[in-house]
Amino acid sequence: MAGCGAPGSPPRQSGPGSALEEEEEEDDPALGCDGDLEVNPYDGLPFSSRYYELLRQRRELPVWTTKYSFMEHLEGNSGIVLVSGPPGTGKSTQIPQWCAEYALSLQFAHGLVACTQPHSLAALSLSLRVADEMDLNLGHEVGYCVPHEDCCTTETILRYCSDEMLLREMTSDPLLRQYGVVVLDEAQERTVPTDVLLGLLKDVLRQRPALKVVVVTSPATEEQLRAFCGDPPVVRVPGHGPPPQLLYRDPPARSRIAAACQAVLDIHRRQEPGHVLLFLASEQEIAECCGAIQTEAMALNPGLGPLLVLPLHPGVGRAAQKVYEALEESGRERRVIVTHWLADSSFSLGTVRFVIDSGLELRNVYNPRIRAESQVLRPISKSQAESRMQRAAGSPPGTCLRLYSEAFYEQHLPPSPAPHVSETSLSRLVLLLKRLDIADMGQCDFLDRPAPESLMQALEDLDYLAALDDDGNLSEVGIIMSEFPLDPQLAKALIASCEFDCVEEMVSLAAMLTASPCFVPPSTRLEEAVTMRRRALLHPDGDHFTLINIFNAFQQHNVDEGWCRKHGVSGEALRLAGIVRAELLEVMQRIELPISPPAFGTDANVLNIQRALISGYFLKVARDIDGSGNYVMLTHKHVAHLPPTCCYLLRQPPQRLPPWVLYHEFTISQDNCLRIVSEIQPQMLVELAPQYYLSNLPPSESRDLLTELREKVVAVEDVPAVPEPLGEAAGREDEEREVCVLQ
Fold this sequence. Notes:
Blueprint (H helix, E strand, L loop, with lengths): L17 H8 L23 H11 L7 H9 L4 E5 L6 H15 L6 E6 L2 H14 L8 E5 L2 E3 L6 E5 H10 L6 E6 L7 H16 L4 E6 L4 H7 L5 E3 L8 E4 L7 H15 L4 E5 L3 H15 L9 E6 L21 E6 L12 E6 L2 E8 L4 E8 L2 H9 L8 E4 L3 H7 L14 H9 L16 H13 L11 H8 L4 H12 L3 H12 L12 H9 L7 H14 L4 H7 L3 H20 L12 H15 L3 E4 L6 E3 L5 E2 L6 H4 L9 E9 L5 E6 L2 H7 L2 H5 L5 H18 L7 H11 L7
Parallel strand pairs: 1-7, 1-8, 2-5, 2-6, 3-5, 6-7, 9-16, 10-12, 10-13, 11-12, 13-16, 15-20
Antiparallel strand pairs: 3-4, 14-15, 17-18, 17-20, 18-19, 20-21
Helix pairs in contact: 3-4, 4-5, 6-7, 9-10, 13-14, 15-16, 16-17, 16-22, 17-19, 17-21, 24-26
């Protein structure tokens, strides 16, 4: 676009896209002026009255004052433009629209506009708002693309997507040729995909000079990003006006949740106008606090007005849009949005006048030495605290209450949050970079380089999984693994299912493991009845098989929501599993992998599923060392326990605990429980795990047992096999084909 200045800016030369320019500089025809209605240049239809109503709101955003400067830099010779500003100033909605105007001025000759978000929920929410502001239909000219949901068509010219999806797109289109502008939003979040995209796009710009990259960040990371990007032009967005009143409160003697709940109720009793944004440490705290506030609110004077409590975290899914729903006509309703780090930068609400900040966050931090995550409750960073405080800025200014002392802020809060690349397992990232022909991690430009130990552990794991050849490049198996949007271990198990003729079952299991946890805690009143019904779905061979059972039962009951409520499972999670399953089957068909017919319930099928699982998850095996449920990992000496939801603990009558188990996840936390557990036989582990993996295990009794078993297997393999009469073998196979009826 030739450019649209901010109000009061000097006139610019006319050029492509001047219709949009005139629309902002002349009186709005929808407001009673003579002349023809303006036409939306993106779809050719007249603008609606709502467009002009939203346009007035957009012009009041702080970012609007920078439009002239931004468009000049975007049209200039610099490939990268850096935009820096506090949250809630309109950057995430307006910058991509201006990029679309620029692309339109070039008739999209260089491609479309993509805007990445670190959180899928934010991409969905922003696309809804921007489609409304542009007077377009979501899913047509404006769309979104997040894991397992693509709401874009061939008409889409502005695509909001998760940073993970754009990174995956580079495996098939390394130069991103369909895009003319790429906006990396919320770069200060330092997610692994955004950090990697920053490095990769610098290289793409050298090969595609016409591409424009816009990096949007907070002031705290401006200097670091400016140095990393080669000193590009910077557009600084002003804040929302006067800063909020800042209050510190000594750490509560009672629980954080009780203190936060009391602070909300005190605000409501004072009847001061404005909504409340409350930051807690975790989803569990959010759920507990929402329940506590709702309970306490019932005892309040009705004259204070209704108090609507809304949780906001990734688990709420599309319900996150409730924070933007119109208020009731009386205008007396007060909203309390209870959230955590998700809303540090995303989900801006102009009506928030009170921010309550607990100052803590619960994060999973990966330890490459033990190949496990640890749940860490830690202080947020100073930049996060500043970002949260800015949510209450405006005119009139609001109030930010920090549930910690000023001394705690100064002494315990780090300047900025740790980059995710330093706290995450890198196996999936390394697999993807290898797919992009970045054989040596030193070739990839990182804002903060990952620890060498983490990279070495990721390479070692991929080597164990046969994903790498002798030269360290992707093997044929590794190339196939990289086609799946799965963790490498699960991708390898799915590939192994082709060899063991259990694809139908493994693809259902992979979908269930990828979707969010399917069990929903029942209310106290229904707990006993729900537990009884769940027992009917338990599979004797382990949690992995129980998940397949649940998915099959859900499909057999025609995805009935009532059936889900009766059994205490999440219909949303099971529907997502169905979508993921279809995606995985589509990938398998595209790369022509064999798909075996279903055989769930036969003894042979159980053994085959176990073999496929061990092929991918031999790194995640534990042994009960004393027969009482104290499981020690093979790869390190941490002790863990079975989770309360495990089928081995729920079945009646109680039976012995399995001596050897394969698990899906383990996080060092308060309960130290394994997640998704199934029994395996150590003989199978010896046969299927790489020999050099077994020999690299740390010294332990478990390793000695496996070494002894390995020697026996080798001895048996050296003995010539005696052919078995065909009739006897066929008869025994029929005996083994005992059908397990789905409950």
